[in-house]
Amino acid sequence: MGTPDFAATILTTIIRSSLFDVCCVITAPDKPVGRKQILTPSAVQIVAQRYNIKVGHAMSNFLNIKPDLIVLAAYGQILPKEILDIPKYGCLNVHPSLLPKYRGPSPIQSFILSGDKKTGVTIILMDTKIDHGGIVANLKFEIQNSKITYKELHNKLAELGANLLVETIPRWIKRDAKPKPQDEKRATYTKILTREHGRIDWRKSAQEIERQIRAFDPWPGTYTIYKGKILKILKAEAVQNKLIIKQVQLEGKKPMSFEDFLRGHPNFSIQNTE
Questions:
Q1: Could you give the domains of the chain?
Q2: Residue 214 in 3-state DSSP?
Q3: For 182, 222, 232, 258, which has the most beta carbons within 10 A of its beta carbon?
């Protein structure tokens, strides 16, 4: 069960391992994408169709299949008890953080925003609460690149999570791995990101804004309002608490260097943003 690229990486690795029989994939229905709003299948559905795996869009599909194990990654919904109770080996969730820290829908973005140096992936036995179940396995990842972007970290954690899952499932089935309760005192929660989260608060430090740019690319983007239009800040660097803007994109225009932007808008300053 899953929808975006993170889950697609998990699914692809499971299939290519040839250790398991993936009997069904549950994912979100096709959604309109782009300016022309073309109905497009999820990344997970594309992978499933490539390997001729049955695709469903509702949890009720499991009622007749009765799988031995459910694997969930970036699905975006809490599973009810009647679904969790179907597989004899339960439901394992792959989460891109070291739980109980950064529970919820935006753990990677929240990690980058925090400026922390250590993250990882966690596999839990799911229950009816958000990222609450017992920890079956985890793997730490030390950040070497202090300028790592969301996409780079996303791809690395998806790869680590997929490999950890393939290693963990056989141990889990043999009962060699046992779930350990999470420490609720250390639990933190992340939010569903909206467009407004990307708007720059210029009162923040240069370091905070620079982390925001790396965390929110591509969604929701980091931006300010200039003469009634959205001005995206695509690349920047924090130097001694000064934000050096390198690349921007004005609403309706293509990305350009900040130098080129200033040639066309010589009066631009933080004071004339809204």
A1: 5-186 (3.40.50.170), 195-272 (3.10.25.10)
A2: helix
A3: 222
